[in-house]
Amino acid sequence: MSRWFSKNLIRIYAAIAILYILLPIFYTIAFSFNDADKRNIVWRGFTFEAWLNPCEPIGICESLGNSFKVGITSTIIATLLGTMIAFALGRYNFKGRSTTNLLIFLPMATPEVVLGASLLSMFININVGAGLVAVTIAHIMFCISFVVVTVKARVASLDPKLEEAARDLYANEWETFRRVTLPLVAPGIGAAALLAFALSFDDFIITNFNSGTVNTFPEYVWTASLRGVPPQANVIGTLMFVIALALVFAGQVIGKRKLAKKS
Amino acid sequence: MAMAHVGAAEQTHAPKKRGKKTAYLLLAPGLLWLIIFFVYPLINLAETSTKTPAPTFETGEFVQTFRFMNFIDAFVDNQEQFYRSFIYALLATVLALAIAYPLAYAMAFRAGAWRNFMLLMVVAPFFTSFLLRTLAWKQILGAEGPVVSTLQFLGILPPDATITATAFSVIMGLTYNFLPFMTLPIYASLDRIDYRLLEASGDLYANGATTFRKVTLPLSMPGVVAGTLLTFIPASGDYINAQLLGSPDNYMIGNVINSRFFRVVDYPTAASLSFILMATILVLVIIYIRRAGTDELV
């Protein structure tokens, strides 16, 4: 018994650590079914009330819509710009490589509160109003670095022989890129886009500095937390969690099918 | 910079093309975006930091007077929050490392078929809102929550004591929220270790502890360095955990910057504080990378 215990100690530890990681997520999910009063803090009974009327609290679905607008726009632009930089870094020799690396690294090494404050200073100085456009600009800025790091890893791990083979078979540069390189890098680009969306969708600090009177979903939760967060916020949190899990599983299944097809 | 190193090491085997024009065309839009919306705002922040209130004393109006004493004043007035930020961030980083390393080790070497599942569980917090999770901790640790009532029932905690609104709950919140940023890089570096190296160490009569100390740990150092940076940097600038899980006695420098901007509308002080925070972090990071690079990495 004690031998089994010491042999599996690290596995038991890992299970406890994962429970710790999941505990607040369970709480968020459970309290979406709570028959809540103004403050959704104590368990008062099971109900589907919040799930049936998710948009009931004023402003909650509007803020969710804003989060999607900002999230989708900034994901598309940041993924495009970041992927281009990743290809330049991974595939070409050029002067200014270390400056480029520094410029990619610095936004990740700057606390969000500094990024938010500096953008707001600029928007104030140039008299551009805070709002969704300012927020989207900010999100693209901090997502680019994460896209570059993610896609660059994938570009670097490519076997250069595959591209050489394509050229040996008389494919020109564009054809090689489109038929060989791009499909091989695509999973990395997909992962980067998901990461960018998650970062944008969940960002609070930078958003709060630059959104003015408009609210995104995290801002809605923040403001509501002063009075009491309605269980509908937990419903949206739960839905996002389930959708993200479903996307990951779908990605795994598609990946496995592709592998099966090849072999 | 740790990440840049990792990236550089991976790239070396791909042959580089010469087409410089294509490279610059690919770089231009993204880098331009970063220059306009990251570098230029920092210049604006620097400019704002030396301004003083306009003679009209209108709220939010400031004129440039190059008053560099703003930095000294801002620091002196908010020393307490500065020290607190770095102490809390340091404690959270150490705690997160202590929790994440064994977890990452289990994932890399002992998980078997459960590896992907565990990886998914580690990133699961990314799929729910940061704020909702922090509010859930407020519930769990709150006066009406399970932790306090259990501890009170067992007589460990006196009946009127609380866990929230203390330094403990703020540090706990920081530790929890940045745990995935610690776990993932450590896991990535452990996962890259060639298992034959560990076997070779065993063949040379090293016991488990020696193998870990002499082989596994040094090889995982890049992940540890990346993970600690990815935890320490955001934790030291955070104000959400202090606000939701702490009391004004636990406020960090992020809380001060935020309230200077929005409640007090004192942009110069907020800008000075932001600059001091950024400069301090950069200096700490450079010292840390140097130390980790010379003493442990080589």
UniProtKB/TrEMBL annotation, chain A:
<dbReference type="InterPro" id="IPR035906">
    <property type="entry name" value="MetI-like_sf"/>
</dbReference>
<dbReference type="GO" id="GO:0005886">
    <property type="term" value="C:plasma membrane"/>
</dbReference>
<keyword id="KW-0812">Transmembrane</keyword>
<keyword id="KW-1133">Transmembrane helix</keyword>
<protein>
    <submittedName>
        <fullName>Unannotated protein</fullName>
    </submittedName>
</protein>
<keyword id="KW-0472">Membrane</keyword>
<comment type="similarity">
    <text>Belongs to the binding-protein-dependent transport system permease family. CysTW subfamily.</text>
</comment>
<dbReference type="InterPro" id="IPR051789">
    <property type="entry name" value="Bact_Polyamine_Transport"/>
</dbReference>
<keyword id="KW-1003">Cell membrane</keyword>
<feature type="transmembrane region" description="Helical">
    <location>
        <begin position="12"/>
        <end position="33"/>
    </location>
</feature>
<feature type="transmembrane region" description="Helical">
    <location>
        <begin position="235"/>
        <end position="255"/>
    </location>
</feature>
<feature type="domain" description="ABC transmembrane type-1">
    <location>
        <begin position="64"/>
        <end position="251"/>
    </location>
</feature>
<dbReference type="GO" id="GO:0055085">
    <property type="term" value="P:transmembrane transport"/>
</dbReference>
<keyword id="KW-0813">Transport</keyword>
<feature type="transmembrane region" description="Helical">
    <location>
        <begin position="180"/>
        <end position="201"/>
    </location>
</feature>
<dbReference type="Pfam" id="PF00528">
    <property type="entry name" value="BPD_transp_1"/>
</dbReference>
<feature type="transmembrane region" description="Helical">
    <location>
        <begin position="130"/>
        <end position="151"/>
    </location>
</feature>
<feature type="transmembrane region" description="Helical">
    <location>
        <begin position="102"/>
        <end position="124"/>
    </location>
</feature>
<dbReference type="InterPro" id="IPR000515">
    <property type="entry name" value="MetI-like"/>
</dbReference>
<feature type="transmembrane region" description="Helical">
    <location>
        <begin position="72"/>
        <end position="90"/>
    </location>
</feature>
Automatic annotation (TrEMBL), chain B:
<feature type="transmembrane region" description="Helical">
    <location>
        <begin position="117"/>
        <end position="136"/>
    </location>
</feature>
<feature type="transmembrane region" description="Helical">
    <location>
        <begin position="86"/>
        <end position="105"/>
    </location>
</feature>
<keyword id="KW-0472">Membrane</keyword>
<keyword id="KW-0813">Transport</keyword>
<keyword id="KW-1133">Transmembrane helix</keyword>
<feature type="transmembrane region" description="Helical">
    <location>
        <begin position="156"/>
        <end position="179"/>
    </location>
</feature>
<dbReference type="InterPro" id="IPR035906">
    <property type="entry name" value="MetI-like_sf"/>
</dbReference>
<dbReference type="GO" id="GO:0005886">
    <property type="term" value="C:plasma membrane"/>
</dbReference>
<dbReference type="GO" id="GO:0055085">
    <property type="term" value="P:transmembrane transport"/>
</dbReference>
<feature type="transmembrane region" description="Helical">
    <location>
        <begin position="23"/>
        <end position="43"/>
    </location>
</feature>
<feature type="transmembrane region" description="Helical">
    <location>
        <begin position="270"/>
        <end position="289"/>
    </location>
</feature>
<keyword id="KW-1003">Cell membrane</keyword>
<keyword id="KW-0812">Transmembrane</keyword>
<protein>
    <submittedName>
        <fullName>Unannotated protein</fullName>
    </submittedName>
</protein>
<dbReference type="Pfam" id="PF00528">
    <property type="entry name" value="BPD_transp_1"/>
</dbReference>
<dbReference type="InterPro" id="IPR000515">
    <property type="entry name" value="MetI-like"/>
</dbReference>
<feature type="domain" description="ABC transmembrane type-1">
    <location>
        <begin position="82"/>
        <end position="288"/>
    </location>
</feature>
<comment type="similarity">
    <text>Belongs to the binding-protein-dependent transport system permease family. CysTW subfamily.</text>
</comment>
